Amino acid sequence: MKKLRFAVLAALLCPFVALAQFKISGKVSGNEGKALSGAGVKLKNKNFTAGTNADGIYEFTNLPAGNYTVIVSYLGFATQEKNVTVAANTTANFTLQQLSFVADEVVVSATRVAKNAAFTYKNLSKADLEKTNQGQDLPYLLNQTPSVVVTSDAGAGIGYTGIRIRGSDATRINVTLNGIPLNDAESQGSFFINLPDLASSVDNIQIQRGVGTSTNGAGAFGASLNIQTTTRRDSAYAELNNTYGSFDTWRNTVSAGTGLINNKFSFDARLSRIKSDGYVDRASSDLKSFFVTGAYYGKNDILRMNVFSGTEKTYQAWNGIDREMLQTNRRHNDFTYDNQTDNYQQDHYQLFYTRNLSKQWVANAALHYTYGRGYYEEFKADQTLTNYALSPVVVRDPVTDDITGFVTNSDLVRRLWLDNDFYGTTYSLAYTPANNLNFTLGGAYNRYEGRHFDEVVWAQFANYNGATSIRHRYNDNDAFKSDFNIFGRVNYQLDKLNIYADLQYRNVFYSFYGKVDATNFAQQNARLEFFNPKFGLTYSLTDRTNVYASVAVGNKEPNRRDFTDSNTGTRPKHENLTDIEFGYRTQQGNFNIGANGFAMIYKDQLINTGKLNEVGGQTRQNVPDSYRIGLELDARWQIVKNFSWAATATLSQSKIKNFTEYVYDDTRIGELLTFDYNNTNIAYSPRFIGSNEFAYTYKNAGIALVSKYVGEQNLDNTSSKERVLDAFFINDLRLTYNVKALGIKNIGLNFLVNNIFDVKYAANGGAGAYLSDGYFGRYEYFYPQATRNFLLSLNFKF
Predict the structure, then answer these.
(1) Is 398 exposed, middle or buried (0-12, 13-18, 19+ CB in 10 A)?
(2) Bridge-based pairing state of the strands 237-245 and 249-257
């Protein structure tokens, strides 16, 4: 009877024993026996991360019984892995071997924040990107990070895409590739379409929201994306990735690397092709790219060369559709001309040199050159010939040869060209005189030379006017821009308090061809100087929990259109932003959370008001006071060994205190309407953005439900309830299966079903007002996104 009772009791306790929670802890030291503080520790294929304290101690708690692989990494030391079986509290100590060569991470360290920095950031590893990389543009791989909204002109994430972070568009998001600016020097946007499948050559990305730390290139007003491309892989490899999906979407990628040769050299290469018809009618994309890198690793230095290029041919889907058509004919495209395309190629060359001058000094230097060229072609109906430097066409009687009239208008096809060079140098010098103190001096000098010219390549009445010969150039102007910046940064650890200070000086010179008055054009110059200070404090409550606060100032110059359509008397002022961030971060064994508050206070933010300057151009105008305030949450919970939950949320308010909207009558010179607004919403700034991911893995298989909610957005700055993008809630389903077979290291099958509930929504749009012959009206347009669609990938790793 006692045996029976014992058996029953044991059976009842079995589930609780199976759910028993244990811990893995240990010490991380260098090969000289010194404890390594701040080493990164994680559990392989789990969302468990930790860091070592001042004594080199780490700890994972609340772990269910099972087998784990613990990975420990520390800059300048070889990464180490250990397999650990957990059936009780377990100790796993690590002794890391110092590398005989410098780590690649040093190359981007000057423009990144460290683990305990007083700024808001998100790190994405190569493994994070691989989960979602099936050929869609890079912004779509960032969609599950806080405060992000993405959109696609073609509707399915391939072709022209856009990204906003905290409501700020791509022109206010600073993007660097290995510390080198990617933003276009004139428009200030980043066009990832010019580098298709870039994510396949990315090792990691750090997203800093807000102003962030000092970096190179245009000022960051919404966020910074710091992208590091392929780094050293010690073993030779080859990979073949193929994707097929809805809208006849194809992606083919082959990549290979030598691994480390003679402990000194490595070479990696990738070749990609992506094609898609697009969700929107005729919104096709034909994209190609390659990436090649080679590196030399010495005992105290690295020399790396990157060469990569992308070409794109995209049928235009830039016009959008009206609200009625959004319901009745969502896939409509206004353009019907066969070659209404955008065509562009961009070649990048990057050379990096890093050297350990001593145990306390590390120097970085880089040279870069980018060559871009291309055009977009479009059909224009009933155009006035004199606007294209063409004389009216003389019409003669075929019998008498007498002049019977003149043709002043014609249908035509034009190409708008851009041919540019961007080159320069970046540098940094890091000094670490003590374990609790480090200094960084960094900066860059870059030059841009842009050649803008426009051509008529066909006109309906070309036979009647010799001047309309093929490739008739009617507009030709050049631009030059230089950008110099230097910054100094210091981190000081005082017991549990980290003190951060960062001072940057930036000097911008821009020479451009633009309007002097309503009829005269000339080359003009502008010079701007900015001082951008940043300060922060981080206090460690425990080894894995801290609170922080920072204040950072950013300044940003107007863009090309702001300059070319104005003169010195009407030119907009530069924008200024004071960004206040404060937050709480904790990383426990199975639970990570970051909560952040922000206040972004703008002075002279540039917005579209409809106002014309004195030369008749409609450019953005400065508004004196505007702001964004909000709260962000980024959390992940490993509920049990095979099931995790990740979520982000942003609750914010974005306001313009007051501005005046101008609407001019296009038929009655001088007549206009004005509307005054107070405390209005900034366009494209939803009050709530949320994402969610439930993921379950079993042996080699995985399934994840990925969700995204974006609240209602105003299409203009008037806060009108009529001109809005409706809120949308989208769910995707991701299935994965990985197996080792047939001598192949890994065969991966990935099936992604986007928008599984077939929601009809638009993620972007616009609005405007018009006045014609005394009649006032408003209009709006939308960019519809794809309904239910799929991407199926088959990947081989050798």
Answers:
(1) exposed
(2) antiparallel
What are the contacts of 693-697 at 24+ separation with CB within 8 A?
693/144, 693/644, 693/645, 693/646, 693/647, 694/643, 694/644, 694/645, 695/643, 695/644, 695/645, 695/646, 696/642, 696/643, 697/45, 697/642
* DSSP label of 31: T
Alpha helix stretches (DSSP H) within 264-330: 323-328
Nearest to 598 by CA among 547, 635, 634, 652: 652
Q: Kindly report whether the global pTM for this prediction surpasses the value 0.85.
A: yes
How many Å apart are CA 599 and CA 577, to the nearest integer? 10
> Which of 279, 380, 382 lies closest to 333, judged by CA?
279
Give the Cα separation of 474 and 38 in Å (integer).
61
Q: What are phi and psi of 468, to 5 degrees?
A: -95, 35
- Report d(CA 388, CA 453) in Å as an integer: 12
Strands 120-125 and 775-784: unpaired
Distance set, CA 394 to CA 205, 390, 405, 412, 420 (Å): 61, 12, 6, 17, 38
CA angle centred on 183, ends 178 and 186, rounded to 5°: 145
The tokens for 258 are 């030598």
Query: What confidence score (pLDDT) does residue 124 get?
Result: 92
Contact, 294 vs 274, CB < 8 A? Answer: no
3-state secondary structure of 723: coil
State the virtual CA torsion across 395, 401, 403, 407 in degrees, nearest 10.
0
Whether 110 contacts 428, CB under 8 Å: yes
Q: DSSP letters of 671-719?
A: -EEEEEEEEEEPTT--SEEEEEEEEEEETTEEEEEEEEEE--EESSTT-
CA dist 777 → 670, 769, 770 (Å): 18, 6, 5
pLDDT of residue 667: 84
Q: Which pLDDT belongs to residue 1?
A: 47
| Per-residue pLDDT at 538 | 96
Termini Cα distance of the chain: 60
Q: Alpha-carbon distance 670 to 519, whole Å?
A: 17
pLDDT along the chain (798 residues), means of 10: 43 42 88 80 77 82 85 80 89 82 74 86 92 92 96 95 95 94 93 94 94 84 91 92 96 96 93 97 96 93 96 94 93 95 97 92 95 96 90 83 85 94 95 90 96 91 54 90 95 93 95 79 90 95 92 94 80 94 90 95 92 69 95 94 94 96 86 93 97 94 97 95 95 95 91 97 93 91 96 95
Domains and CATH numbers, the chain: 1-99 (2.60.40.10), 227-399+408-797 (2.40.170.20)
Whole-number Å distance between alpha carbons of 66 and 46: 13
Strand order from edge to edge, sheet including 66-74:
49-51, 40-43, 66-74, 77-86
Identify the pLDDT of residue 653.
97
Tell me how far CA of residue 210 lies from CA of 140, 173, 214, 225, 552, in angstroms.
Answer: 20, 9, 12, 11, 9
Return the SS3 of 743: coil
| CA distance linking residue 603 with residue 716, whole number of Å | 19
DSSP 602-615: EEEEEE----B-TT
The span from the CA of 586 to the CA of 596, in Å, is 12
User: What is the amino acid identity at position 415?
Assistant: R
SS3 of 483, please? strand
